[in-house]
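Project standup — Tuesday

K.O.: blocked on the structure for the chain from last sprint. Re-posting the sequence here as requested.
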Amino acid sequence: MIRLAVIGTNWITDKFIEAALQTGQFELSAVYSRHEDSAKIFAQKYMLTTIFTSLEQLAKSPDIDAVYIASPNSLHFEQAKLMLENGKDVICEKPLTSNIEQTNILIKIAKQQQQIIFEALKSYYLPNFERVKQYLPKLGKIRKVCLNYCQYSSRYPLYLAGENPNTFNPAFSNGSVMDIGIYPLNFAIALWGAPNSVSADALRLPSGVDGHGTILMRYNDFDVVILHSKVSNSYLPSEIQGEEGALIIDHLSVAEKVCYQPRDGELQNITLAQNDNQMYYEALKFAELIKQRQINHVGLNNSLISSQLLTEIRQQTGIIFPVDKFKSIS
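H.V.: unblocked you, prediction finished:
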């Protein structure tokens, strides 16, 4: 069994623990929080007695094999770096880091240490994402792609009321493209790799992060248009258009429903059944990488492309985080 520790005591950590335990490959061994009370309360749910309030002590513990990181985006780099340098495999919530410079450093360290670094982008590993890849050749030449993920943030009313929640605070490397836009961006990367070029526009909120935006990724014969927002809801599916048909995907991040529309023919629902906890598949993949010691896995290249594009997109839209060393070109 892989002895797992978690950094973070929020709802997404609960979901990942549930998924990891379902795989039968992990045992939960420890919980980290800066606050002892929070760590104890969270650990009690899982009848755990081992808690850490020191990252250094967690990193040096001989009783931990792997660490799941679900802290604010701005903390991912330093926490993952510390764990890797101390011989721990790491699964880190998206985005892996705040910018491409940090991502390059982290992956270099992982390779030097011969440890797994794995970005927890659940979309890649879903059965219905595989379904999309399976049906893609049926579309003929791809011509137009519209990927849509717009979700009104539960924290936005707090922001409007004058508070500064993490979601809309550049100090935490957050905002729409880093939180929401990353899903359609990576969906495209996993299917077609790096684009020939990218251009982006966004609404920059007074706090300094983007509230919503549009991304255009240009490939040889087609374009990918990405719509993302944390200040409005969308009820439209995403669509991949080819000369011979189209694929229609509801709720892109979890590929809830996938339909195939031939150019001449009836609409076909090709959705596969998926685990109710979509994080199950990423947890299973992480366990596989650990057991096979696949240091140079496909996800690393996807993470590099994604981080490079996110950095470029933010440069174009004037979104700068305290950890960045670049200047806006907008």
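K.O.: great, moving the ticket to review. The mean pLDDT is 96. Residues 124-274 form a domain with the Dihydrodipicolinate Reductase; domain 2 fold (CATH 3.30.360.10).
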